[in-house]
Design goal:
The complex is a heterodimer. By secondary structure, chain A is an alpha/beta fold. Chain A folds into two domains: 9-130 and 288-303, 3-Layer(aba) Sandwich (Rossmann fold); 133-285, 3-Layer(aba) Sandwich (Rossmann fold), CATH 3.40.50.1370. In chain A, 37% of the residues lie in helices and 14% in strands. Chain A starts with 13 loop residues before the first helix and ends with a helix. Chain B is of the alpha+beta class. In chain B, strand 7 and strand 8 form a beta hairpin. The longest helix of chain B is centred in the middle third of the chain and has 10 residues, at 76-85. Chain B is globular, with a radius of gyration of 17 Å. Classes of the chains: A alpha/beta, B alpha+beta. Chains A and B meet through helix 4 and helix 7 of A and loops of B. Chain A: Belongs to the aspartate/ornithine carbamoyltransferase superfamily. ATCase family. Chain A: This is Aspartate carbamoyltransferase. Chain A: Residues 5-144 form the Aspartate/ornithine carbamoyltransferase carbamoyl-P binding domain.
Amino acid sequence: MRHDNVITSKQLSREDIETILDRAAEIDADPSAVANAYPETILGLLFFEPSTRTKLSFETAMKRLGGNVIDIGSIESSSVKKGETLADTVRVIEGYADALVVRHPKQGSATMAAEFVDVPLINAGDGAGHHPTQTLLDLYTIRENAGLKDLSIGIMGDLKYGRTVHSLAYALSNFDAHQHFISPESLQLPREVVFDLHQEGASVREHESLGEILSTLDVLYVTRIQRERFPDENEYQKIAGEYQIDMNTLEAASDDLTVMHPLPRVDEIAPEIDETAHAAYFEQAHNGVPVRMALLDLLLGDAQ
Amino acid sequence: MSDDTSADDTAHELRVSKIRNGTVIDHVRAGQALNVLAILGIDGSQNEEVSVGINVPSDRLARKDIVKVEGRELSQEEVDVLSLIAPDATINIVREYEVTSKHRVERPEEVQDVLHCPNAACITTEDEPVTSRFEVLEDGVRCLYCGTIVRESIADLID
């Protein structure tokens, strides 16, 4: 990998992605080999938006590599509350840490932040923009369960605002996957993303109903449709209901179908699916640690 | 400067009077002349002498607009932005009634600090020390921070 920063999945080539996933697999197989690889290293966590999984798994990843983390804590108690710009905050924390992880509600925030610092910077979500490390753990999970070759994947739910979806779609265009996007019309992929995917020559099809293509899928990636996207509660209930899955839905699916979800789920996936061989979403969340360890190892290893 | 002005063109040139010193922006896409003035920040308040021809016949474009500004030579930065809405334009610099240089606009790969991003969720719309940057596409511009693509009404985004 020749990158100093990881801002979008678009910037990652197939080779970059495979390098990271291969390293993650090595670490996954033998975590003790890297248990003290970065004893002096401090990772700065700058989360300007709530996060559970991403933040904790970055923290775990750094600690499992032998390093430590510092954290600006909640926005309420930090200097941001006093009106400090993001550009100033990252420049200050850069002096304390060897690499930064930034989540911020504005699109393009990580791109901007990276312009102000010399240490490696990882985007942990910039508004409705990108979330490349989620994508890497998604790809790792897909590779472990269904393989990335000749993949047919359905991505369902809120495709408009879901940054995990955008990042995943960009990355999958490197692997010649057949990508099916299933959503209500009002939550379709942004036209910018479709434009880019076509530019990349990706195989992209949009559907309003899962039934049309469920039987052809190797992976079904479900995302949450958020209540606040709908002005009307009834409208939300009606639409969200059409994009939930249970055992009945999966009768039409292949036995080998892998079901994924970035979590947290509300009621998109019925709990009865959890105990079946289809369910990969908890494994997916766990994969966040080895994948982020691999990414930190590659970024920090290059920097050393 | 010798040019290939036909009798027909000369007649149209006369519709908008000759200038002594300044810039003639020719072959502007029909209907964009007022946007060209907006980009240049020309609204008459500075007493500039400006002549505008809208929808005049042209060999190259069928219909074109033409803008003549007395007493002002355009900077490269102004020409770059102009290229976004008038990609076929030619810029003639006039001194003492003579065209001293004539060139077509070239679309830059990127424009900085001239447009603002229409996406309210973009970091460049915040109070951050950041300069807006747009990649120039074949048929629009794209914010290099949030990725928003703008194809229409680019002139509305001029700062």
